[in-house]
Write a structure and sequence with these properties.
The chain is of the alpha+beta class. 27% of the residues lie in helices and 30% in strands. The protein contains 15 helices and 34 strands. The strands form nine sheets. Strands 12-19-18-15-14-13-20 form a seven-stranded mixed sheet. The N and C termini lie far apart (55 Å).
């Protein structure tokens, strides 16, 4: 008997593009970017797609009334990941790789000549190399055998793999990187402006291996200087359409974990050919400014250059010169710092928001185990480089924004930052009033000015930490897009990323477009929106991986303190408890509501960012000092559990008066 189709049921098939999210149950949902609604996909309709892949799905059933859709995947547009960690199973004629994942995924068939020396039941990294529709099993190869004794190494690789970042470069990419010719032709040398005789130096972290920016300075006349921002010319060596370029685009960014860097480009490119090492002639792409001592730019020149770095400074070297007034090239360093500080002051005066931050780094032993925690603050040496890089990025974006083809702006990967979310801003404004801080929401400019006034007024006060944290949470996320809405946080109408092409793919795209504009043949890339979206997604994945790795290190570090008590600060609240960050170590753990409910019944007050006891009125609010005990440290879950410590009078024990700041980016579930 034929069933009659519901009047709400659409029979017209259509195709959509989205990201496949496979639940533990085995059901899949293709998430459509425009928010038009997910598409249900049953296991038999995955068509070789894996969790996280970008796919095309044919919708064959839709309930018009509810908006629910069901479909079948017709194409895998792009794989999120091709490398997986798991166990190898050997037999006489073949091997199988069983992935470690809570997402349903088939085993990989591994030919015996591709097991790379792996033994039966060893944990390995395997790469998916082929999976056609007619293949019953996906075909793979073993990339690396893992050392089970090195738990840290395995954990870091799992984090990278789960985030979709390859753990190694394919052989073709490595061979291509080794074949890149670093010899410049006479024609290439002639078309570049030579800065070889101008004082030039780099300023980087002490452990940096790739130097992708340098600064030059030359006096033109009294009070006027030529200051050059020289960036590694990666696009000269990484050509469009090569395996090297494709791999760099797929990764889109380097990933910085506590004990390693997972690079966007192979070492021969990032640390040798393109790195602006002292004493070597290097190809660069430069923005050169004629500036006075007030930081006013009189003239800008953009073009391909040759430089010869005279010295490699660390941030510590430069900070010492700034503080003492003596050292190598001290006169030039002090002048650049003076100009940078004036530009910084002017930037904040024109709407940039001055959120302070601290960077937490781990001291590691030879096996990557954390043995200490260091808090690094942004000092004037860091700000010197930051201000000149911001200036270069801004001027490059301004240059491209003024170029049109057929009365249209050319597709360009601007770095944009939207205005604050009003829904998040309103409760923050109400909360800040409780501390006597006024907020003007009359316009985006007045909001920015209010933020800066609040941050200045709160400095050194008990509420400083919580207001900084909550203020950051009202901010939108920066992203790459062709829609040039400006960068709200920096107060710039035009902004892009030009200064770090060794570690960011958008910078390479910017270099190529700027070069095409300088040749009066602007590059029109019709896929620029798609590329911007991909780079933004990979950037977020890298940030998630970095947070996960830092959390792992926190848990690993706190294992030695199980059962011990520490002073802490409440860093977030939710219905199921509150997060607290130790003052001494900056390590965050959760105090469960179940633990708190032994003393009272606590409820969440969203507008006050607090948990309040119904009977006692006892309040746990963001920024409050508390005493905690470390009760659990789970490395597998990367989770710390704390317990609130009470004294005999039912109050928390006295806590340290040490001021606390945090560079932690808020989790979405926190308020």
């Amino acid at each position: 008997m034929k069933h009659k189709k519901s009047k709400h049921q659409s029979s017209q098939a259509f195709s959509l593009k989205g990201t496949l999210d496979i639940a533990r149950s085995g059901l899949g949902y293709v998430v459509i970017k425009d928010g038009s609604g997910d598409v249900l996909v049953r296991p038999g309709n995955f068509n070789n797609a894996l969790h996280g892949d970008t796919v095309r799905v044919k919708v064959f059933k839709e309930n018009v009334a509810t908006g629910k859709k069901e479909g079948k995947i017709t194409e895998v547009v792009a794989r999120l990941r091709t490398e997986f960690i798991g166990t190898i199973q050997l037999s006489t004629n073949y091997a199988f790789f069983i992935p470690d994942t809570d997402k349903p995924m088939p085993d990989l068939y591994i030919p015996l000549d591709k097991i790379n020396g792996a033994q039966h039941k060893e944990r390995v990294v395997a790469r998916l190399v082929q999976w056609n529709q007619e293949d019953k099993k996906p075909v793979g190869e073993v990339v690396k055998v893992l050392d089970d004794e090195d738990q840290n190494d395995s954990a870091m690789q799992v984090i990278l793999s789960e985030s979709g970042f390859p753990l190694s470069f394919p052989g073709e990419v490595l061979k291509e990187s080794e074949r890149v010719n670093d010899q410049l032709s006479e024609k290439e040398i002639k078309r570049r402006k030579d800065f070889g005789d101008v004082l030039t130096f780099t300023i980087d972290p002490v452990d940096a291996k790739d130097f992708d920016d340098a600064i030059s300075i030359k006096a033109i006349k009294k009070g006027l200087y030529e200051i050059g921002v020289h960036i590694a010319d990666v696009s000269h060596f990484v050509e469009v359409g090569t395996a090297l370029d494709t791999e760099a685009y797929n990764r889109a960014t380097s990933v910085y974990l506590p004990d390693r860097v997972n690079p966007m480009l192979p070492e021969n490119i990032s640390n040798v050919l393109c790195s602006l090492r002292p004493g070597e002639d290097k190809c660069t792409f430069s923005a050169v400014f004629e500036m006075d001592t007030k930081g006013d730019v009189k003239k800008t020149w953009i073009g391909k250059t040759l430089i010869h770095s005279d010295h490699r400074f660390t941030y510590e070297d430069v900070q010492s010169i700034i503080e003492v007034g003596k050292g190598k090239y001290a006169e030039e360093i002090l002048l650049l710092n003076s100009i940078a500080q004036k530009m910084r002051k002017e930037r904040f005066r024109h709407g940039a928001i001055n959120f302070s931050s601290q960077e937490v780094r781990f001291k590691l032993d030879e096996k990557g185990k954390p043995i200490g925690i260091v808090v690094k603050e942004s000092k004037e040496s860091h700000q010197l480089i930051e201000e000149f890089m911001l200036l270069a990025n801004k001027k490059i974006a301004e240059y491209v924004s003024n170029i049109q083809v057929s009365n249209k702006n050319i597709p360009f990967p601007y770095r944009t930052h939207d205005e604050p979310d009003q829904e998040k801003l309103i409760p923050f404004v109400e909360f800040s009033r409780k501390f006597g801080h006024k907020f003007d929401m009359g316009s985006p400019e007045k909001i920015a000015a209010s933020f800066n006034r609040l941050l200045k007024d709160a400095e050194g006060k008990p509420e400083q930490h919580v207001l900084e944290q909550l203020g950051i949470r009202t901010m939108a996320k920066a992203a790459y897009t062709t829609n040039n809405i400006g960068h709200y946080g920096l107060g710039f109408e035009n902004y892009c990323h030009f200064t770090s092409p060794i570690r960011r793919y958008p910078d390479i795209m910017v270099h190529r477009i700027v070069e095409s504009c300088l040749k009066a043949k602007p590059l029109i890339d019709k896929k620029m929106d798609e590329k911007c979206s991909h780079c933004s997604e990979r950037e977020r994945a890298a940030m998630d991986a970095e947070r996960a790795a830092n959390k792992y290190k926190q848990v690993e570090f706190m294992l030695q303190y199980l059962g011990e008590e520490f002073d802490a600060v409440i860093s977030g609240v939710a219905r199921f408890g509150f997060w607290a960050e130790t003052v001494e170590h900056k390590c965050e753990g959760l105090v469960s509501i179940n633990d708190l409910n032994e003393y009272d019944e606590f409820r969440l007050i969203e507008s006050d960012y607090s948990l309040v006891g119904r009977r006692s009125g006892r309040k746990f609010r963001m920024g409050d000092n508390v005493r905690i005990k470390v009760v659990s440290a789970n490395l597998d879950k990367r989770q710390l559990d704390y317990e609130w410590v009470k004294d005999s009078k039912g109050k928390t024990k006295p806590t340290s008066k040490q001021k606390v700041k945090s560079n932690k980016k808020p989790k979405q579930e926190k308020l």
